[in-house]
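Two proteins were folded this term; both appear here.
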Amino acid sequence: KGLTTPAAVVARMDDGDPASQIVLDVVANASDAIVGFCHGRVFGLETVQESFQRVNNAREGALVLARRPVASIVSVTIYGTVIDPQWYEFDPAAGLLWRIGIIGEHLPWYGRVIVVRYQAGYTLPADENCTLPMRYQEAAILTCVAMLTGAGKDPTLRTVTNEGVGAYAFGGGGTGTIPLAAIPLLDGDADDVLIA
């Protein structure tokens, strides 16, 4: 699914039909370009299963989940036994899963195999109750507009200036189809940690 909607792109351009195949394709291509720029990060909400082998983290305390943000923990299993949710808590943004004791203290995880099933990612703009941060949506819209307005033009062209209107700069230096205006919106994700 896309990181923006065809309707948002058409509204920004103040022209076009959100149902046209060209706009639909551009939304898909722009979203793919952003995913590529962010080293394959999966933005959409999905259920993930991670296995931790031979865990003995008396010092660290928390298990570090690969996908962020964590929306919910579906289950935690140690030695094939499902752990009651009252015995763990998580930090959604950091992707940290703590084991907790009777009085709420953080305890170390131990186990030969710990399996964590969880939901991670964002609900996307086409879904109800979108949770995708606006910076990603804006980057997708900017990329779509650049693709639509740049179609059929010289690919080596980096800046277009219209007298009395302004200038528009296109990405260069290996950014592919991501316009320069979108790069700061994605900057923290280009080098993100542990992306599944």
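Next, the second protein.
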Amino acid sequence: GCRVSEVASLKLSDVVNDKDEVNDIIFLSAEQTKGSDSRRVFVNTKAKSAIKRYLQSNISVYNSVYLFTTQKSKRFDANTLQQLLKRLYARCSIVGATSHSGRRSFITKLATSGVSVRVIAELASHKSIQTTQRYIDINDELCGNAVKHKLSKELKRAERHKEWLGKNLPKSKQVRENQKQILELYTAIKCDYQSV
């Protein structure tokens, strides 16, 4: 979820600790971020593996202050890194991708996984949840997960009602009719949930 400018400003010491291990959390100073506030970046297992491979294949990085450098061993600026990413996307035949696509994908993937928008905003270093919401691409998977989650909740509630009704046998005709409607609702919800 880093911005290109944040990636360009990463120092080797931000990413790798004294034991030559990739840090679980990267701490970015206010000078390295867009909003002039320091922030934390959590590094998942896949990213750690990619960073380790990069470090093993590019030993010269250890002679540099910055994690990513140009062919002349200079620090990338954000614009140069954006141009490099654009060329890499083109080589991989990824049409329409920009340096910001990875960040947008990161945010959308978290949303698709059911992560709260408030948590996503924190991870993306957005001060406003509205900004985060603009990043989230609505897709079929996100909509399907929303329906499954809602139906799952309804199914659990209907199962509790069914259990309660089984223990409390109704006496009046109206209560028996209500019980029948709840059981029909339970069956309908269960069928909908299983078909999603």
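Residues 140-167 form the longest helix (28 residues). Residues 192-196 have pLDDT under 50 and may be disordered. These notes refer to the second protein only.
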